[in-house]
Each structure stands twice: as structure tokens, then as C-alpha cells.
Amino acid sequence: MYIVFLVTVTAALIATAAYFSVFGIASMFAYNYIPAMIMGITLEAGKISVAVYLFRYWTLMTRLFKNLLLVFLIALMFITSVGIFGFLSQGYQKTSEEFNLISLELSTMEDAYKAKKTRLEDINAQINRFPEESVTNKIRLNREFSDEQAEIRDKIAALEPRIQELKVKRLAYETHIGPIAYVARMVNSPQDNVVFFAILMLVFVADPLAITLTIASNMVLIRYWEHAKPQAATATFKTPMVFTNVLGRMRTMAMESYHNTFKKKRVRKKAAATKKPVATKKSAAIKKPAPRRKK
Known about the structure:
Elements: H1 2-28, H2 33-56, H3 63-128, H4 135-187, H5 191-233, H6 241-274, H7 281-285
Helix pairs in contact: 1-2, 1-3, 1-5, 2-3, 2-5, 3-4, 3-5, 4-5, 5-6
């Protein structure tokens, strides 16, 4: 049961990291989106293949080939990590830009609304400046400012619902970036810096953990095949000859690579424990002088 769980978690993590990496690489090269996506998929598959190959055939490779594959593996992890970083940062950047645009538009409209309100109050103040007895002057000013007052009222009536709509939209975006804003306030740091380090931690965890779990799954599966082999020999059902040969070769190769990894260490330990000093030619040639007889 644990083997199934481990393999499922490993496959899910590899698939998630590959999804983020592929779409991140493709978004960085938007002009060639489909070719960049194909390249990202092949790089992800190559990374997993190199990691598994290094684990299974470590003892059978030369030192130059090992170092070459290790360099390729580290470079592939760096490339796919850049894709994951680009994918996550792009999502935050879209949300942040839309929030800033809504805030800017809302600020502009609120300033215009305040200016129209202030102008309307100034006109009313000029009209009310005359005493109640001077009705003629008030009527004259009302006629002079009537068109402007009507235009200001129309603009105020149009601005009010738009301002309320933008406030609702900004509140919705604040709920998306609210946790990030709270963390930024807690650590007393700019919001963009907090997002940068959060994405960086996710990137440094995703790819190395995927590689580590892939190797761990291979170790568990090899152990499982080793213990399941005697039981499979006594099974009553029969499988097609083609599948039997293929699976048998795969298991044999996996078992040989697994046993060769530890066989040399055991031989070295046993040889070191049972090793005896060997007499050299020089020591063999030197003989002790015979004791002299007493007269």
C-alpha cells in the first residue's frame, strides 16, 4: 500500500512541476509558443530519465560519463526551475497589474468626482452670497450657471455608479493578494519582495523533491521486485511470452544494477577484515643467525 502511495505522490509531483515548467518556458517564448512547449516537455522527460539512469547504472559508468550526466542533470533542473519561477511570477504579476490599474482608475475618478462636487458647491455659494431681498440677482446667477450646473450633475450621476463598481472590483482583487499583503506587513517588507522569496522557496523545493522521490520510488520498486520474484515463479497464471521476456529483462537489469552498487562495498569490507600481512622478498631473504654451540 505504501508503494502505491509513494509512486502516486511522486507521479503527481513530477506532473505538477512539469506543468508549471512547460507553461512557464512557453510563456517566456510566446512568439514560438508550441515549439517552446514541446521543448519543455522533452526537457522534463530527459531530466527524469537522466536521474533514473544515474541511480541504476552508477557503478557501470566511467567517471567522465558520470560527471557529464551530472552536469546535464543540474543544468536541466536549473532550466525547469526557471520555467516554474516564470509561471508563478506571471500569475502574480497579472493580478498585481490589474489591481494597480483598478486602483489608478478609481483614484482618477474619485478626484474628478471631488472636483465636480467642489465646483457645484462654489456655484451654490456664489448664488447664496446675495441676501434674500435681491431676488433678481439670484435669478440672474441661476440662469448664468444653469447649464454648467446641469452638466456637473450629469457627470456626478455618471461617476457615482462607476466608482462603486471599481471599489467592488478592487475589493475582489484584495482578497486574492490579501495574505501576501498581510505577510508583507508582518515582516515589514515590500509586497513584491515577499512574493519573490516565496516563489524562490517553491522553486528550490519542487524540482529537487521530484528527483529525490523518483530515486526513492526506484529503490522501493527494486526491493519489491526482488521479494516478489520467488512468488511470481510459483504463480499458476500464464502471461504472453513477449511480455514475460521484456519484464524479465527489465527486472534482471534493475536487480543487477542494484546488487552491483553494494557488492563492491561488501567485498571491500570483507577483504579489509580478513587481510593478513604478506612477507616480502626482503624479509624472507634475511634469516636469523643460528645459535653457537658452547665448547
